[in-house]
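Researcher: Checking consistency across runs. Here is ATP dependent helicase, Lhr family again:
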Amino acid sequence: MTDGDAVTGPAAFTALGSRLRDALSMRGFESPTKPQRQAIGPIAAGEDVVVVAPTGSGKTETATLPVFDALAGEEIFGISALYVTPLRALNRDMRERLDWWGDTLGIDVDVRHGDTTDYQRQKQANNPPDLLVTTPETLQAMLTGSKLRRALEDVDHVVIDEIHELAVSKRGAQLAIGLERLRELAGPFQRVGLSATVHDPDEIGRLLTGDRDWRVIEVDVGSALEVNVEAPTVTEDDEKLAQELVTEPEAASHVRRIDELVAENEATLAFVNTRQTAEALGSRLKELGTSIGIHHGSLAKETRIEVEKQFKRGELDGLLCTSSMELGIDVGQVDHVIQYNSPRQVARLLQRIGRAGHREGDVSSGTILTSHPDDVLESLVVARRARAGAVEPAPIHHGSLDTVANQIAGLVMDFGEIAAPRAYDVVTRAYPFDELDESQFKSVVRELASNNVVWLEEEEDRIEKRRGTWQYFYRNLSMIPDEATYDVEDVASGSQVGTLDERFVVNFASPGEVFIQRGEMWRITEVDEEDEVVTVSPIEDPAGEVPSWTGQEIPVPQVVAQDVGELRSVAGSQLAAGGDTGSVASDLTRRYEVDSETIASGLERLAEHVGDGQPLVTDNQILVESGDGTVVVNACFGHQTNEALGRLVSALLGQQTGSSVGLETDPYRIELTVPSGVRASAVVDVLSETDPDHVRSIIELSLKNADTLKFKLAQVATSFGALKRWRGNGSARFGKGRLLDALEGTPVYEEAIREIFHEELAVDDATTVLERIQSGDISVETVSGHTPLGTGGRGSGTELLTPENADASVIETVKERLQNDRVILFCLHCTDWKRKRQVKRVSDQPTCPECGSTRIAALNPWAEETVSAVKATDKTDDQQKETERAYQAASLVQSHGKQAVIALAARGVGPHNAARIINKLREDEDDFYRDILSREREYARTRSFWD
């Protein structure tokens, strides 16, 4: 990093030339903002700089004013500056903001991305603009065009906007090599990165510069942040409102409170964590008459642009949005930000609430609306960390091998042919690949050659272009996995409403079905598979299905979950010493700066837990509890660490018992559905006796039986050119075993495992937890039966908005359908008796008429292969798994009779989920059918992941 002399502070604009200063006066810029005061001087002096500041604080002008100053009055032949943004929407926004400066200073500004017309592309190639706004993927394509390569030879400045967004994905790793490819063409150029608040700005600097000299300029945001956490209480009016909105009273209280906050402020952004929640919540708010629009990535571009304009013009009081609005799309002045449910990550909260109040001296204010106790405590922790600026780590993708494959093809496209050592040098100049082993690089080249992507001349150590290179490269410009999307078109107007993921269309969308999009209800009239179009007509129906879209749940980081554990420790100790919930909550207000009533609502379950005399669950104490066929490991380590620990424990228990073990995790629990006889002590043995050095290999072995690896292998194989386009439900469906057998030992397999460990399973952190358990640094307690904390998972509050609590007529329909469904009854004792029967004709306790056994499995009517598997003597792995499922089903029927048969007859409800449904305590029989319906819907949303 460098510390050169440059003009900073209130006089920062004096570092710019007179033409720029005149333009600033015309534009109404009276004094520089905080980032402008600190960064304009160093950027004007030609330094490589990373500017870390909240969205809306003037970062764009911080970077572009010095660049415009450098370009003003110069005779420019090619493209002198590139402004790279992660979203096309930001392209559009940047164009509008930069055009004025270009027109005033005589600098030609243009935009290029995937939707740019052929005419405009040709015009840019023949007469390049001085400054081009583009995306990382379009830059990849530009580097291979003959005319554009000549234009790019003149690049002197590259600005990367929202670089933190790129850094945590393979897009950032791809761009890092892309910048080195540009350097091969243009020579050294200035690099400026614009970032939101991040854990390690120097890591962003290395990604941007390839570990050359750079300067980080960071603006503190925590001190200018007002965050309130609320847990709305249900009123009598909310009870009535719930009936009108076809939802739960608690959800109605949330809808009512959002409506109030929108009314109290002039311009409010309301962030939610998923597109599904945006649609479900939006439909209820529109029913209530709230002046609010909906904005997320699966809405049509025209729809998004229109609601942005309406909000900016003041025609809408609020905008309900997902992460797409975290970035710097200009929607005008924002007074207040609502975060619906815990933001789960400090970085997200800072980015979202940072969108409010950007006039100089303003404080960014926001409200987190919470639901269940986990959500409250987590929100308290995230808000406190945000005020302190304590952002969690977000590691970049180091050594991503499919990115290497992608960029080798790019280098061959650049030069026609390239010496392998030179290609290796270019790739490893990029920071994410500075430790890439030469043997790994060679294995990637050989894989590409075997897939006919490039030609490898081994004797001369040269990589050459071949017929398949062009097709592969342009098919893989993006490192975002390709999954089909269907356009949703209004049959009346012909206009596009939005898009739907292929998995939702395949699993749910058929003529007559109703779903929510844009906060409105639509009935499907036609599904055109060939053109990938769903035609719809608008209807009035408050209970449509919420579509599923691609996108993982936002994971809670380990540092946040640990802080929740520490909060439990402090509050739990006070409660155990005789303090009441109110006084403990009041004591905690000084620490968390939130009203005592909200804190008290977060302590309800903890108080019940302590009142029962149960051991605490804290940042350094685990509680393992068992009962009703489940073992719950209460552990405050976050999503990814708990998922890794869960896979480890389930794999080893399954190995010990010879039976499969079900697994569900959240940031504070690992729930295992275990064979009969398995108790908490068995789990403790695994945690205390497993060699930490073996954790990685055990989890990798367990993945070979998991659909996660199959799906990831297919995606990565596509990006290596080993498969045609991967479609989750299309013609490219492979047997898991076949795909694994074909790819194990290749860089494709190595990359699939690396990516799963990077994105889903914190294997290193799980290893550290085992080491701490075995050293005594983390204690492990056990109890028999389930505790209030163990049964209080996140799922208790996340689906409130979805109309899962169906009305009586829907429940009656489900009952009738299940009673009329057929099942195969198969005796596992004698294996001679098998009958196909309607559920309503099955006796309360099925018994084999041949041998009198009650060990009867209830199987789907098409499950003849399961019967064959049970009878087989020399079983394959798949047959062994089918046999285990049959025995699990028989065990349920033996214990619960016809109730188990009904649950097992449901769509996609296997023995694991059937056990969960049956074991749930409930007073109303209708709730049993509601739970079945909920599981069926969940299966429909996720079916593409299952064989």
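Researcher: Does this match what you'd expect to see?
Model: One thing to look at in this run: Residues 726-734, 794-806, 941-947 have pLDDT under 50 and may be disordered.
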